[in-house]
Specification:
The protein is built from 6 helices and 5 strands; from the N terminus they run H-H-E-E-H-E-E-E-H-H-H. By secondary structure, it is an alpha+beta fold. It has a 5-stranded mixed sheet with strand order 1-2-5-4-3, with helices on both faces.
Amino acid sequence: MSALFENISYLKSGNPRQQAAFRVLSDFRIMEALAGYQPLLAGTIPIGIDIESSDLDILCTWADPDEFIHHVQQHFGHFEQFQCSQMQVKGWETVLASFRAGEMEIEIFGQQRPSHEQPGWRHMIVEQRLLMQHGEDFRQQIIALKRRGIKTEPAFAQVLGLEGDPYEALLEMEIYP
């Protein structure tokens, strides 16, 4: 299933928001600019559970954070609302950049581990599988919770009745078919 999401071309025939995402990513050549960093589009828009305030999340991997920051600033620093910072996220050095391109907010999340291994990607793949298993009513419950301000992983955990840290609980579901 994850192979479907590795190339953004699936967005062309998706819902209106997915089609808009494809246009923005293509028109501004965002994935091309990040090609050397294993860019993967993750989050709620690819799996159709986004709400009005959802952004495009692009996961990247880098070998040198300073070089990655320079690259991101060089290619995206001129975009509206551009910000870039470095921080620790669950023990991983992380570069986070955000900006507005056309009608979309974009967030680039880079770490020194393969994009496929980052929690954002892994969560999305589990969430897509759950959406396919549980159907449209389940999808609508998730979207309703998100509209009430609940983040994606906690929304899934609430609907599924999962205990503990919702982010870890979803990752534990990777092993289940």
